[in-house]
Design goal:
6-stranded antiparallel beta sheet; 1 helix
């Protein structure tokens, strides 16, 4: 299962949210699914939305913007190991094993791929 991790200044994980089949909004306001105490975050700063076997990061019109791997974005598809900066907060996106397996199954169906068994 994919997850979003809030990172501390030393790189440790301060908090983690599992990303299920519904969007996860991030901000400092009470209406955010993932509330972060950061005065530079908008009340609703960004959202991560599951789309098939991927997740999409979308800025919600925040004043200070959202960066993905150092580049300001409005919307982008996330990959394992991506870094998100919003306000003074840094997040890391990761994909769990079930996400990788689901993506492989989707590819198998899309390309009608049949694994070849090795013979010894």
């Amino acid at each position: 299962m994919p997850c979003l991790m809030l990172k501390g200044q030393n790189g440790s994980t301060v908090h983690q949210w599992n990303l299920r089949d519904h969007p996860l909004s991030v901000g400092r306001g009470e209406q955010a699914d993932a509330r972060v105490d950061d005065a530079r975050l908008s009340r609703l700063h960004f959202v991560i939305e599951p789309k098939g076997s991927t997740c999409v990061l979308r800025d919600l019109g925040s004043h200070n913007g959202t960066e993905l791997n150092g580049q300001r974005i409005t919307e982008a598809v996330l990959k394992a190991g991506d870094w998100i900066r919003a306000g003074q907060s840094v997040f890391e996106y990761d994909e769990g094993l079930s996400t990788v397996i689901r993506r492989m199954e989707d590819d198998e169906r899309q390309f009608n791929f049949k694994p070849r068994h090795r013979q010894n």
